[in-house]
Amino acid sequence: MTAEPLVLWCDDLDRAVAVLTELGLRLDVIIPADAPRVAELSRGDVAMRLTRRVEAPPVEIGRAGMSYRDLLPDRVGGHFIASHITIADGGPVPDYVHHHDIRFQVIHCVRGWVRLVYEDQGPPFVLEAGDTVLQPPHIRHRVLESSPGLEVLEVSSPAEHATMVEHDIELPTTAVTPDRDFGGQRFVRHRLADATWLPWRGAQFEAADTGIETATDGLAAVRTVRATAAGAASEPARHDGELVLWFVEDGSAVLQLDAEVRPFARNDAVAVPPGVTFGLADASANLRLVEVALPG
Prior knowledge:
Elements: E1 6-10, H1 13-22, E2 26-31, E3 38-43, E4 46-52, E5 67-70, H2 75-78, E6 81-87, E7 91-92, E8 98-100, E9 104-111, E10 113-118, E11 125-128, E12 132-134, E13 141-146, E14 150-157, E15 163-165, E16 188-190, E17 197-199, E18 205-209, H3 212-215, E19 221-227, E20 243-250, E21 252-257, E22 260-265, E23 269-271, E24 278-281, E25 288-294
Parallel strand pairs: 1-4
Antiparallel strand pairs: 2-3, 2-15, 3-4, 5-6, 6-14, 7-13, 8-15, 9-12, 9-14, 10-11, 10-13, 12-16, 17-18, 18-19, 19-25, 20-23, 20-25, 21-22, 21-24
């Protein structure tokens, strides 16, 4: 392959990629997934880099036909991206086997279901509402199909990272090695239906841990939190870590951030700044939220 790729500019990246692949080039890299701006393609010793012009219309659909809602506009200084991803129509997803150059990535199914397959993890499986997957660095995977109205929460670090197309490994792989190490992490599939619930920040909330803290050697922790009764309030907390993100799956509460008090309802998210006292009050009986914390 040539040392320097041929650089081309375009307004419609998806269309340009489609034309070039029809001409025999293969897609190698997309950056970023939520609003693709750069695509790298190759054929033999020819390499091309497609870049969407700054003046081009904004991208409304991300990679593989998925719609992304940005939950962290400031990206925490470029360290994290959190997205509320939806697939409206459902059915087969136009995805391909790929992997990500990431430090951390978690997928949590909020509503509906999605069928996925992962390297060395056996046959495809269905991730249902409330279930969570840890995607370790560079594990090959593919989204196969989804229910109509699928909604998932995806949290990744760093905020901008490459999606690399896998051309040689087919999924599912023949080998099944659930404890395989991928960059210091192990794959996790957590099913909420099998969860153990324990008290969380007082007697009025309980949480189900996903096992991600153990699988990442303390890098991150992910848990589902729910109220045990209407009007529940949590004990106040503070953190000095990189990230504490809350995403409301269902119900509502009052969010307290130091002296600030505001409504906190379904599909809302907050990244709690370090050093701030935070908590929940007046929760509805059906309140359920996801907490992603780094470190664990």
